[in-house]
Amino acid sequence: MRRGPPSVKRGGGTSAALTLNLRPGITWLRYGAADEEAMPTILHRPRRLVWIVNHRTLLPAEVPIFRRLGYEVFIPKIIPPEHAYRSGVVTHDYDASLTLPEATLAVLNAHDFYGRSLSRRGWSPTIHQILNAHFDVVVTSMSNFITPLRETVRHFRGLVAMRVFGLQHPNTYARGLEHFGHAELLDEIGRRGESFVFAQGFDNLAEIEPPELARRAHTVTVPLPERIYAEAESWTGRGAEVIAYCPGIQQEGYYRELYDAIRRDFGDLPLRIFGRQTETIPDPAILPNLTDAALMALYAAAPVMVYPSTEPRHVHYAPIEAMIVGTPVLYRRGALCDVLAGGGGPAACADVAEMREKALRLMAGDQALTEAIRAAQPRIVAQFDTALAERQWAAMLGPAMREPLAERSVA
């Protein structure tokens, strides 16, 4: 249902201003009467946030947090192709709650915020004007699609939250900026001061970064969607196959090496490898693109999941999802799961040989080991709690939420 025309109020005198009420109590625009060319400024409006992350699993867990904290949320509608942005997703679900002018929302929805990989092409002045006029926070990931981070660091006048989840050791985000051809962006980040946040998913990410990032680090854990918690403790372990996670297997690269290692180390056991694939891999052990329901059933039936990653600052969703279901998950000592567990738990394995030995015991029905692992897993799961993430976001955004909205030029 369309609203009637906005109401207009005029003051008297030569310095009179025209005030345009777009929606009572929500958005006001003011035009200086003495200068017909003057740009309007916002006097009052809702707090708004742009979420340039578009992650399939994180979206239904994190975006509702922002809504509960009082933010309207815009999510880009154009994302990179699946082979380049495997976990990407688009939704229009939050558009209805945006109190933006229809034309403004249409411009945002038609804009490609990510651009091409390693692109140096910037956003248009119109996009910058809209963001600065209507939004307070931009949350953006960092990848080879560097445009969102670069453009917001350079042009956005609100808070920029660089949402990071860890890289393969020994990579750092600072070296990533250099690798992507934007080493100078580190200095620009440093000059932003408190209007930039290194929003790390885990406490240990900033410890290997330079001061420009480390001193602006705030930990905000990585929450999981409610649909996963709905399957909590549904594990039966009645299956006969070891399960392992390996997405994005291609002819070469990080995940190809991981796949080859899984096949080498566990291929003689009854094995299922799952994870989203963008290419067809001729291996009957691979379950390429499971539905959510099929994935939960896989977790519930598996006597054991092996997670041989040795990364100290990155973990996939899969082992955490499996722990929530109740599946015993084996991981490497010194890897992030081990760090989150406090080190040295019953699921930690010093090497592949120990992981194989424990996997065989679990497959054979070793109840003592099974229950010891399952009893230790809630300590890890608790660190991905949605309520914890909400408290951390509230603490990080708190200063911005308490300050009055600054007047800004409207596009």
What does this molecule look like?
The chain is α/β, with parallel strands linked by helices. It folds into 3 domains: 7-42, no CATH class; 47-220, Rossmann fold, CATH 3.40.50; 226-384, Glycogen Phosphorylase B (Rossmann fold), CATH 3.40.50.2000. Helices cover 35% and strands 17% of the residues. It is built from 15 helices and 16 strands. Helix 1 crosses helix 15 (386-402). The chain is elongated, with a radius of gyration of 24 Å. The two termini are 25 Å apart.
Class from helix and strand fractions:
alpha/beta
Distance between the termini: 25 Å
CATH fold group of the largest domain: Rossmann fold
**Helix amount:** 25-40%
Beta percentage is: 15-25%
Task: Quote the average pLDDT.
Answer: 89
Low-confidence stretches: 1-42, 406-411
Within the largest sheet, what's the order of strands? Answer: 6-5-7-8-9-10
User: Over the alpha carbons, how many angstroms does the gyration radius reach?
Assistant: 24 Å
Shape: elongated
Just give the CATH class of the largest domain.
Answer: Alpha Beta
CATH architectural label of the largest domain: 3-Layer(aba) Sandwich
- Describe the largest sheet: 6 strands, parallel
Number of helices: 15
Count up the domains.
3
Quick one: how many beta strands? Answer: 16
